[in-house]
Design a protein that fits this description.
Elements: H1 13-28, E1 58-61, E2 68-69, H2 76-87, H3 93-101, H4 113-126, E3 128-129, H5 142-147, E4 151-152, H6 154-167, E5 172-178, E6 183-192, H7 195-209, E7 216-221, E8 224-230, E9 248-252, E10 257-265
Parallel strand pairs: 1-7, 3-4
Antiparallel strand pairs: 1-10, 2-10, 5-6, 5-9, 6-8, 7-8, 9-10
Helix pairs in contact: 3-6, 4-6
């Protein structure tokens, strides 16, 4: 009988097939520890992505810069806006001093994108996910989250990142969204009102993090477009993947304003 030198003996074939199958299953079951949605989100790296910089060009209709200023205090959004405003304590010495300490000399000067990345990286690399008390919605002040060593849930991450950005001269906001199974919160930072400013920021992020796609939301109102860079903790870099929401978001600002924003997709041409 002729024996092929590279052939696998028949008696070992079932074992080999089992090991291959086991490796395949394990590779597909890898997950990250907080239990948040794992969908690819509104933004994806699919071939039909809208351009080299955006996951997708997400445009949000807005009431305008005035928003609602705490409204009547009866709506959940109104109460939440006050809690988020108080938690974003960017002028607290703990928040301000810690944020300043993270900026290296090479990235000093007026507020810039490199500083945004420095702050986000520091929080992201230290974060420990911990749920809110059962049945409650708790917003930890940024200074307290820093003192605790960066522990909390998604809205606590969003608040501390946004507060530190505000403390060094940036403009940030908190966005809450939901889908059929869960809710989520994340921060965004304002990076300009033109596509050229966004593309300049995207080019820096692509170089710093060796990525191709950069996600942002474009809020449109009577004053024109505003580009907001995604700073979600679920992403692996600033401008990462979006949370897969149902198309309706609420944006909360440091002064207590809040506004609903709705989404449609715009593709080039």
């Amino acid at each position: 009988m002729h024996v092929f030198p590279n052939a696998i003996p028949f008696s070992y074939l079932p074992v080999v097939l089992f090991l291959v199958l086991l490796c395949t299953i394990n590779a597909a079951c890898v997950s990250s520890a907080p239990a948040v949605p794992t969908e690819s989100g509104i933004g994806s790296t699919s071939p039909d992505s809208s351009g080299p910089f955006l996951y997708q060009n997400i445009v949000n209709t807005s009431r305008g810069v005035e928003g609602f200023l705490n409204n009547s205090g009866k709506d959940p959004e109104a109460r939440r806006s006050v809690a988020i405003r108080d938690a974003m304590d960017s002028r607290d010495p703990v928040t301000r001093d810690y944020a300043v300490s993270l900026i290296p000399r090479a990235h000093g000067g007026t507020f810039n994108l490199a500083q945004i990345c420095d702050l986000w990286e520091n929080v992201y690399s230290r974060w420990t996910y911990v749920d809110d008390p059962r049945g409650e919605e708790y917003f930890s002040p940024a200074s307290r989250t820093i003192a605790l060593g960066f522990k909390g849930d998604c809205d606590d991450f969003a608040i501390v990142v946004a507060a530190m950005i505000e403390s060094v001269g940036g403009s940030a906001r908190i966005v809450t969204a939901k889908n059929g199974t869960s809710g989520h919160a994340y921060s965004e930072v304002y990076i300009g009102n033109t596509s050229e400013q966004f593309e300049e920021a995207a080019a820096y992020i692509r170089q710093r993090y060796h990525v191709t796609d950069v996600g942002c939301h474009i809020t449109t109102d009577a004053d024109g477009p505003r580009y907001w860079l995604n700073l979600d903790w679920w992403s692996t870099h600033p401008g990462g993947r979006f949370f897969a929401d149902d198309g309706v978001r609420i944006a909360y600002y440091p002064d207590g304003r809040w506004e609903p924003i709705e989404t449609w997709l715009v593709r080039p041409g």
